[in-house]
Amino acid sequence: MSRGVPFDVIGVSHYIYWHGSVASLQANINDLAARYGRPIVVAETAYGFTLAADDSEPNIFNSSLQQAGGYPATAQGQADALRAVINAVKAVPNGRGLGVFYWEPTWTAVSGNGWDPANPSSGNGWENQALFDYGDRALPALAVLGTA
Fold this sequence. Notes:
By secondary structure, this protein is of the alpha/beta class. The protein has helices spanning 16-19, 22-36, 63-69, 75-90, 140-145, and strands at 10-13, 40-44, 97-100. It has one domain (10-145): TIM Barrel (Alpha-Beta Barrel). It is built from five helices and three strands, in the order E-H-H-E-H-H-E-H. It has a three-stranded parallel sheet. The radius of gyration is 17 Å and the shape is globular.
């Protein structure tokens, strides 16, 4: 604002296992909306549905991050974590909570399609946070995302 750049929306990233609790997210986005008078989106979030891997690449979401996040690494835990983030955004005063974007909801492990374009066999460190299980079935969190 001090540089006079106009903007319409404020976007924040919030992974509860890295950035803190849903209560801290709520306090932050309420403050931002009140201070700047702009709508808020959570531009990226994700949570694991399992600690198991589906390829050879170590997953970013692991038991330490599960503990930090406070939800179990289960299909229901993933749905509950996402629901909590969505509810925080919906609770922003004056209707300024716009919505939530899920980071890489379809990034499942596919042989020969790794994260590194120079090394197709590099694997995927995010597949346990996708919204589809290792049998390519939609997880409950996908329906929760539809309520955002």
